[in-house]
Design brief:
By secondary structure, the protein is mainly α. It is built from 17 helices and 2 strands. The longest helix has about 40 residues. About 50% of the residues are buried.
Amino acid sequence: MDAAPLLGDGYGGDYAPARTYKEFKQIVWSETVKTWLISGPVIFQIVCQYGTNSVTNIFAGQLGELELSGISIAISVIATFAFGFMFGMGSATETLCGQAFGAGQIHMLGVYMQRSWVIMLVCALLITPVYVFATPILKLLGQQDDVAELAGSFSVLILPQLFSFVVAFPTQKFLQAQSKVWALAWIGFGALMVHVLMLWLFIFQLGWGTTGAGLALNISGWGIAIAQVIYVFGWCSDAWRGFSWLAFKDLWGFVQLSFSSAIMFCLEIWYMSSIVVLAGHLPNAVISVDSLSICMNLNGWENIIFIGVNVAMSVRVSNELGKGRPRAAMYSVYVTIAESLILGLLFMVLIFFVKDHFAVIFTSSVAVQKYVAKLAYLLGITMVLNSVQPVISGVAIGAGWQALVAYINLACYYIFGLPLGIVLGYVAKFGVKGLWGGMIAGIAMQTLLLLLVLYKTNWNKEVEETSGRMQKWTGQDIQRDNRAES
């Protein structure tokens, strides 16, 4: 039995309004457990995924400075661009699978996954020229010729990894919608262990150099994709009913939702990445970029936690809306935002306490350490904002608001935040602090607007729209069926 009181208002199994402290505490505890049971394994999976690229860079560093630079650029620029776009395209599957699972239309999950495979394959083919022409692209972006040439050849070498995303990402969303996240976590952990072994074997024992590193990335990528598919075929018989021609039906509507998701996701990734590029054109660029990179590294580790919360929020909201439980979706959102904000504040306080010391882990340069200490206050504020923003993005994916959030991101990040950062950094001569301060202003505006959207949200109407979406894709009135069951 659910720990929180239930309401018989036509929505089966929904929460009742919390009128006493005891009821409020029950709801908070219930939602906390549900959220972290999903986000915990997802965080572990992302750490393993992040570790795969990190370990590759570590092994590449043993080959030489040129090899390290070339492989790092190929992974951080070319592969990350492709990863971000493909991952975003998969978010449509996350929305529809989560809502269909909540609505009890479990058989549709397999159809949505196959439909996403078709669309993602086309996207991979469209992105392929970026890998093939990586060398001239990198030279155009200002990379040294020798680094750009090595990075370009390595990008072509890891092209098969791109096509592993076609299979892996929709399958991942398919499993997450059903909260089967531990399977993904263990597959990711196994892939990381095998990846390390392959790097050691290919680079040190067989002497294959950068070719060995690329081969290891391809095998790891396809190993994860194949392992996930095997799990789906073998242990998800309710949601996987075999291949279907329905995968080719209503592709355009699916493409629209997928593209909105990709734009929303990519605008967020590129925004924080652009500050490092801009810092490279400031006076004393080496210290500026090194200091900023250290701060972004720590911010990236915090982001791993909140990406896990983002996924959990998407699953919770989409499932509850699919089930016709508006109040459960609303409480889940508010509880998770409050807890994430508390975590963000704790990270900020921790950064403030160790601001004079944490840079020692990354560099022995006293000048860089002092500059990092000056940037620590901006890092702390960023961590607070980045604790709330991913939660709201997860709500957007779960509710299908990707297009709205993409417009908000475009306005706040690229029309307001980025120009303000350039003015403060270059015109007002505040340097990195100005660049970062302007970008923080953009994130703050985006967060406030999204909080306003949440405040104005009519969750009963969201249930109706979810029912309409499911009726469009499945031909059944899900809201009517949910009410009939209650």
